[in-house]
Amino acid sequence: MLAITAYGHPTLKKVGEEIDKDYPELQKLIEDMFETMYNSRGVGLAAQQINRAIRLFVIDATPYGEEHDIALNFKKVFINPKITDFYGEEWEMEEGCLSVPGINEYVKRPSKIKMTYQDEDFNTHEEEFEGIIARIIQHEYDHIEGKLFVERIPQIRKMLIKRKLNDISIGKHPADYKMIYPKKKIKR
Length: 188
Description:
Peptide Deformylase, alpha+beta
């Protein structure tokens, strides 16, 4: 299992670089990302969250399958993705993030997206996604663009969680998975 970069880590602010099929040990990295995501109880994981500033994320939306049929068995690898259009009605939903453990906030996002990406075999796809799938993709896409969901919440909410965010960055707000902290971890 790979360590998750915690809020405040500089890699989380980096825009990912495109990769090609010669990226070192790519298939193992993808397998390790899925394993890390499952062991951390996530539904998506971007490379920035494992301390790599590349354009890669993985998703398995199956946990949302009971509420959203389109999420059942939706498992994909997205390499060098580019969202080309955001559209549809904006809807608000509570989001969380493995890099920001213990904090969930409501975020508004468009209900539909159009994007191009490559799969793990570097086949290029152009697809449209909607609903919960579009939301998960947009959350992970933000990561490869150097953004976190907490940057999308109202300023007043950011002020209210500022202390918690700082605690996460110094390891004071524990997660039950391995993390990399940007600042010195506090001993307990």
